[in-house]
Amino acid sequence: MNGSQRLTTSKRLHTKRASYEGRIQLASLAGGTAAVIVALTLLWIEDYSTQLQITLTLVIVAVWLGSAISLRSLVVFPLRTLSNLLEAIREGDYTLRASGARTGDAMGEVMHEVNMLSESLQRSRSGQLEASVLLQKILAEVDIAILVFDEDKRICFSNTKGEQLLGEQHGQLLGRTVGDLCISELLTGKTPRIMDLNLPGGIGRWELRRTTFREGGIPRQLVMLSDLTRTLHEEEKQAWERLIQILRHEINNSLAPVHSLAISLADMLDREPRPSNWESDLREGLDTIANRSEALNRIMVAYAKLTKLPEPQYEAVDVAEWVGRVVKLETRMAITILPGPDIKVQADGGQLDQLLINLVKNAVDAALITSGGVTIRWQTVGASLEMCVEDEGPGLANTNNLFVPFFTTKPEGAGIGLILSRQIAETHGGALAIVNRTDGSGCRASVRLPLM
Q1: Contacts of 416 (CB under 8 A, 6+ apart)
Q2: What pTM did the predictor assign?
Q3: How confident is residue 11, by pLDDT bands cut at 50, 70 and 90?
Q4: Largest CA distance in the chain
Q5: Which H/E stretch holds residue 75?
Q6: Cβ contacts of residue 395 below 8 Å, gap of 6+?
Q7: How far apart are the first and last CA of the chain?
Q8: Residue 246: in which H helix or E strand, if any?
């Protein structure tokens, strides 16, 4: 509604209000007209002095007009009070109260009901404000990224987790489009679904849920992202710890036949005379014991590495020196280094070496198959360091078992390198992800570590 329309409406309402007040005024005057006429007629037909007649006439007329005006005010004033109260309620001010609210009186009961309406609305608004504050606190603390998009695919709301995930400061996400943030996939495809994301505030596996709602009649899209990575990893770790206990028990039990074989061989050596083929039996038995012991020892050592990773001894680690130190250990091919910013991270240098050695070794193994190359580069993403090891190998046919202990596709592999590397990254508050490259053949291993 523009200004001229509001002015016209106001004039019309004023005209209606004046017309109603005028009718009240006319009705009050008409009610006393007959009595005044009779009184003045009797006054002037009697033989009174002129001065007395004029004085009484003025008194009668003044009382008549005063009564009419008082009656008008008595009717109109409560209505104006109600109008002011209703206007305040319409504007959202529920603090005003009407005086004269009482029972046993028609207008007083109306005032009482309006006061009760104001109190009820005030309580309702207070409850809504408290619920809104509680909802805001819940959204701020919940460990789920919540994003709301408008019709133009611009972010119109984000909670703290959503800002952290997209690597933006408080309030800087509002108005940004999915194209600006490279998150168009959040608004497409089926939902709910599990998806792998590589965002400034985190990489890993997330559950995407999306729904629509209306705000003020305008459609909105609500997107919720739940981080499944750490939960799945923790459950996986607990499962493997239980499995390790079982395997340790079984391995110890398997040593019993070895022990029995050793005793049998000792008895054979103590016999006189010894069997004719005792030397071949002895050698065969000793070879069996040695082979079995070596196999069991490899399994135990490998499991121990997974379950007994020591706590990091934090120090300032120069990223360029770290990369250069690891690259020198690889002699099978020259590694290409694309230097990034001159930065340091707080980490355990020895554990980071082990992490990067495993990734470089896997990349070189893959690159040698296709006579490709290996590249290491790093950059800062938000408050994190992203270290990438890229190879030009054949790529991964199946990524589901990458982080399963003792699973390997290499004939001489132990199957613990990647799971150990991921555990080191997560112990430092980071993450490790391995995906097939989209810009060529091969894989990309990405490590995220928090900066100092």
Answers
A1: 302, 305, 306, 405, 406
A2: 0.44
A3: very low
A4: 176
A5: helix 50-90
A6: 366, 436, 437, 441, 442, 443
A7: 57
A8: helix 229-270
